[in-house]
Amino acid sequence: MKHNYFKSGIVIALLAVFSLLAIQSEAYPPFVRQSAKFGAKDCTFCHTEPQGGEGWNERGKWLMAEKTKRNADSINVEWLSEYDSNATAAPANKTEDKGDKWAELESYHEIMSQTFHPAEEGNLKPIRSQAGELAARAQKWLDSKPPLMYGVPSIKAILVKLNAESKALAELVNKNGSDEDVKKSITALHDRFHEIIGACRVEKEKKK
Ligand code: HEC
Prior knowledge:
The chain is mainly alpha-helical. The protein folds into 2 domains: 29-93, no CATH class; 101-206, Up-down Bundle (Four Helix Bundle (Hemerythrin (Met), subunit A)), CATH 1.20.120. It is built from 9 helices and no strands. Helix 6 packs antiparallel against helix 7 (125-143) and helix 8 runs antiparallel to helix 9. The longest helix is centred in the C-terminal third of the chain and has 28 residues, at 179-206. It is elongated, with a radius of gyration of 24 Å. The protein binds heme C. Heme C binds at residues 28-29, 31-32, 35, 40, 42-43, 45-47, 51-54, 60, 63-64, 67, 74-75, 77. Heme C (HEC) binds next to helix 2 and helix 3.
């Protein structure tokens, strides 16, 4: 008898675990349905992986940040109405107007600093492996919508050059260019990057 109680205890415990798992995974697909009006087709609307779970794209990360900001218990897909007006060229959002955050700039800078500083010291491995990524991020940066204060032709003009030069560096690396040429190219590109940072600083000062 005792033995049977024990067995059914295990069965019940297992059932509980399975139904919890089922509830958990069923909690997410509604996200897709609820956010269909914002353009969602599948989990990759917010996740980096098609099967969802760990790893979120900008939208997913934004939702999680909102959850913290709003002190909410769970994500509310309706918040996306604010995200969308933020991300598209729709009427400017007030916080963005005043902001100087330019995610694509930071994303480019990340690779630039990971590759340029080793290159300065003669280690060209990072830039040789990341030149393609650097060029891709330059293009994304060029295509992005700048914070209002940086949306000026002078900055755009330097950004166009930076994009072309990032592509040229990627090609040079692709062709297995010499260390000397690669170093020269990444150094010039780093200067170009700081030209933009300088121009941004000028615009920011103007707005004060
Ligand atoms: C509208 C955006 C959105 C969509 C669409 C979406 N998710 Fe999510 N998902 C999130 C966010 C945001 C979290 C984090 C929730 C939190 O932190 O409270 C999350 C969390 C999860 C988690 C928990 C992961 C963990 O480690 O915490 C799973 C599993 C998951 N989603 C699966 C899916 C699946 C499967 C789909 C597609 C059927 C999907 N999601 C669609 C936004 C979304």
